[in-house]
Design brief:
globular, alpha+beta, 23% helix, 20 strands, 5-stranded antiparallel sheet
């Protein structure tokens, strides 16, 4: 049976060093929820607090309505998958998967049935008699996942499970993990620093920085309408450009380099006044136009052909550098040194206050704001 996870005002300290100052969070039953952020942001610390491996200096943790702060980790009914696989080197694949079931002293027939079920689910039944040393990294991680799921946990916790795999295997395994989670329907908390990985597997993501959740939302929400500049730069690639808001005749304009202006129709009414701002423009939201001189003037510094798309690296007249992603054309790639003009897909850009603390546009969703832990 899956559970919801409710965290109210969590605090984690190591001596005088506060890692998590005050964190509240709700994870839905059956949800694939990812904690995403740079190294040292507190995501693994929070995961280990949920697991019972770290002490809790403040706040309350609940599985459904049951407070688990003082519950022994062994009684929390969690499955855990680690970065380094952590499977037993002296046991065959089958015995590794059956280990947790035997510890629970289940009948032999049930142990056999469940072991076979998860060997088949993870497509490793043909390796049941192999020792771990004869398995690839991806196969070992499948064994670790099968062992974690075989005990039918209420919660599955995964700490950077793919970071030791090569790029191709990571893509393959993240697809497998998401498919298995969908089939089993178990509440899953996943920790990673890889934003592409997080976007590929998650129902929702919490972006963390210095122990504080910056924004919670679906991958689409975080990418299209980040709540602040940190989220905008951490989720995907973006061009950060200093700009100004101008107001004329009741209309609001974004003033960009080369004196190029675009009218902004979706700014919050209370934010529509003249001031310096920061514009976040994704590489695919800049359109190259070599003929129209009404735009942001730029010069091509480099072009990288990547098949479907070509990435252009440019500089503007005031020295601002930017990246542009365009669909590759059959006939040619724009040569280095070419002067171009850039149009902006204005409905997709994001505008932040001068410090980058908050987004000034309508439609920013942050699930964190819907729950304060009370």
């Amino acid at each position: 049976m899956s559970v919801s996870i409710n965290i109210k005002h969590a605090v984690k300290k190591y001596g005088d060093n506060t890692i998590i100052p005050d964190l509240s969070l709700k994870i839905k039953e059956g949800e694939f929820f990812t904690l995403l952020g740079p190294s040292g942001c507190g995501k693994t610390t929070l995961l280990r607090m949920i697991a019972g491996f770290n002490s809790i200096e403040g706040g309350d943790f609940y599985f459904n309505d049951k407070r688990i702060n003082d519950m022994d980790p062994a009684k929390r009914n969690i499955g855990m998958v680690f970065q380094n696989y952590a499977i037993f080197p002296n046991m065959t694949v089958e015995k590794n998967v059956a280990f947790g079931l035997k510890n629970r002293k289940l009948p032999k027939e049930e142990i056999k049935q469940k072991t076979d079920q998860f060997l088949k689910l993870m497509k490793i039944e043909e390796y049941r008699d192999r020792m771990p040393e004869r398995l690839s990294g991806g196969q070992q991680q499948r064994v670790a996942l099968a062992r974690a799921l075989a005990i039918t946990p209420d919660v599955l916790l995964m700490d950077e499970p793919l970071s030791n795999l090569d790029a191709k295997l990571r893509v393959e395994m993240r697809t497998i993990i998401k498919e298995i989670q969908n089939k089993v329907g178990i509440t899953t908390v996943y920790v990673t620093h890889d934003q592409e990985e997080a976007m590929a597997v998650s129902d929702r993501i919490a972006v963390m920085s210095q122990g504080v959740i910056q924004q919670i939302g679906t991958p689409k929400v975080l990418y299209q309408r980040p709540s602040n500049l940190f989220v905008a730069t951490f989720i995907g690639r973006t061009n950060v450009i200093n700009a100004e808001l101008k107001v004329r005749d009741g209309k609001t304009y974004l003033h960009l380099p080369s004196d190029h202006e675009v009218e902004i129709n979706n700014i919050l009414p209370e934010e529509a006044y003249e001031r310096k701002v920061i514009a976040s423009i994704r590489p695919e939201e800049l359109i190259v136009d070599v003929n129209n001189t009404n735009g942001i003037k730029a010069t091509i510094d480099d072009a990288v052909f990547l098949g479907l798309n070509t990435h252009y690296f440019v500089h503007m007249d005031d020295g601002i550098k930017a990246e542009i992603v365009q669909e590759s054309k059959i006939d040619s790639i724009i040569e280095k040194g070419t002067e171009i003009y850039l149009q902006v897909k204005k409905e997709k850009i994001n505008i932040f206050d001068e410090k980058g603390d908050h987004n000034l546009l309508i439609g920013v969703i942050n699930d964190r704001d819907q729950y304060n832990g009370d």
